[in-house]
Amino acid sequence: MKKIVKLTLTLTLILTLFAGCGANKKESTIKVGASVTPHAEILNVAKEILAEKGITLEVVEFTDYVQPNTNVESGDLDANYFQHVQYLEQFNNDNGTHIVSVAAIHYEPFGIFPGKTSSIDELKDGAVISVPNDGTNEARALMLLEAQGLIKLKDTADFTATILDIAENPKNLVIKEIEAAQLTLSLQDVDMAVINGNYAIQAGLNATTDALAIEDKDSDVIKNNYTNILCVKEGNENNPAIQELVKALKSEKVKNFMLEKYNGAVVPMF
User: Fold this and answer.
1) How many CB atoms neighbour CB 31 within 10 A?
2) 177 near 131, Cβ under 8 Å?
3) Which of 117, 143, 235, 255 has the fewest CB atoms below 10 angstroms from its CB?
4) Could you tell me if 104 and 115 lie in one domain?
5) How many Å apart are CA 233 and CA 44, to the nearest integer?
6) Is residue 60 part of a domain?
């Protein structure tokens, strides 16, 4: 009888150890949502680094700017990597979410790309320029158009500006607000488009070589507001696996990948 009890206890201990190993394995797996380019591509480089530390990184790709945040808020994702500082702040304000940045990773220059008109000087009266319609990115596009002298915004305009905040429009430009993901797809139908960096890259465009004008990447306004960030739900900032992901994303391996792969369209911010 004692042997049976001893054997039972031994088996129980072994099963407990196996269960513990399974739990640990689960804890070392993180799921991160990202835009297809360049974020998912960058994460896949970091994935190799994390694997060496026993951490499994699952990258979930999204083609919109809403689901990555709602999925982090709900707990379906451990983190996301697709947005800049201003977009996150506006999203939290509009949706009552509690998402925070844990690291600033890179910056993508916004650019004005030619469609039916090949240069800014050739823009005719009533020309059509498309801009992203999502919150802070529309304001960002309008500020770039203003920097080129095409429009003038009201003095009260801020990072949430829309076409209603245009004070002067000497060329009577038609500013067409459309979903960011559609900007490259409809480029041939407009005179020009102000396109988000990730969607430009996805379409094979590079703001530093293909755009007619880009933002000043050395501007403090740009650095402080439009750097792309790794985000988690508030309270998860100190998750050990997330902290290891931050280290991986800020590694020399990832930096070199950005510099070599994107030729200036993605600028490391570390």
Assistant:
1) 16
2) yes
3) 235
4) no
5) 22
6) yes
Looking at the chain, which runs of residues are DSSP E strands? 29-35, 56-62, 79-84, 99-107, 111-114, 128-132, 152-153, 166-168, 174-178, 192-195, 213-214, 227-233, 267-268
pTM, rounded to two decimals: 0.84
Q: Which residues contact 38 (CB under 8 A, 6 or more apart)?
A: 106, 108, 197, 198, 201, 258, 261, 262, 265, 266
CB-count exposure of residue 37 (10 Å: 0-12, 13-18, 19+) = buried
**Prior bond of 38 cis (ω within 30°):** yes
Q: What CATH number did the domain enclosing 83 receive?
A: 3.40.190.10
Q: Is residue 219 part of a domain?
A: no
Closest listed residue to residue 212, CA positions, set 116, 111, 135: 111
3-state secondary structure of 178: strand
170: number of Cβ within 10 Å: 10
What is the DSSP pairing of strand 174-178 with strand 128-132?
parallel
Query: Whole domain around residue 117: which residue ranges?
Result: 111-214
pLDDT digits (tens, 9 = 90+) for 205-264: 999 999 999 998 788 888 889 999 999 999 999 999 999 999 999 999 999 999 999 999
Domain count, the chain: 2
Together in a domain, 90 and 159:
no
